Amino acid sequence: MKTMSVLCFALSAALLTATPALAEGVKVENAWVRATAPGQKVAGGFMDLTADADMVLTGGSSPVSRGFELHFMRMENGVMEMRPMKEIPLPKGKTVSLEPGALHVMFIGLKGQIKTGDKVPVKLTIKGKDGKETLLELTAEARQAGGSQY
Ligand SMILES: [Cu+2]
């Protein structure tokens, strides 16, 4: 029995880390979405992005929401503020972390509740140095997490 539970744990850990997506020179790791409460209209998405050339994240979309925005949070006069961004630079070789309380993507106008363990498909729009935009497809797993809501 002991061996069995250890194996199960190893399997679920492997599922949680997911498969890193690789397309157009941008590596995506640790992609996740915050699970929502019923009726909640927005959710934050988080991931680590590493580009192998200078590129820019300009937006994206997901079937789970009507809108999709790039956001950042900052303290302004003691109040946490969330602001939309037109783009997020992805400098060559530098890992850009989208994380709670900082840069993140935001699913706006959720079509339904996002439950823990849900696989959320996301398409990111990445602009290369030549100005060409490509789509980067990935799957982010929904997690329960404490701390900052977005
Ligand atoms: Cu946000």
Describe, in short, the structure shown.
This protein is mainly beta and 150 residues long. Strands 1, 2, 3, 4, 5, 6, 7, 8, 9, 10 and 11 form an 11-stranded mixed beta sheet that branches. It is built from 1 helix and 11 strands.
Note the main attributes of this structure.
11% helix; disordered N terminus; binds copper (II) ion; Immunoglobulin-like; 11 strands; 150 residues; mainly beta; eleven-stranded mixed sheet
Report on the architecture of this protein.
The protein has 150 residues and is mainly beta. The protein has one domain (19-143): Sandwich (Immunoglobulin-like), CATH 2.60.40.1890. The protein has 1 helix and 11 strands; from the N terminus they run H-E-E-E-E-E-E-E-E-E-E-E. The protein has one helix at 2-17; strands at residues 21-23, 26-34, 42-51, 55-61, 65-76, 79-85, 88-90, 95-98, 104-110, 119-127, 133-143. Strands 1, 2, 3, 4, 5, 6, 7, 8, 9, 10 and 11 form an 11-stranded mixed β-sheet that branches. A hairpin with a 2-residue loop joins strand 1 and strand 2 (26-34). It is globular. Residues 1-19 have low confidence and may be disordered. The structure holds copper (II) ion.
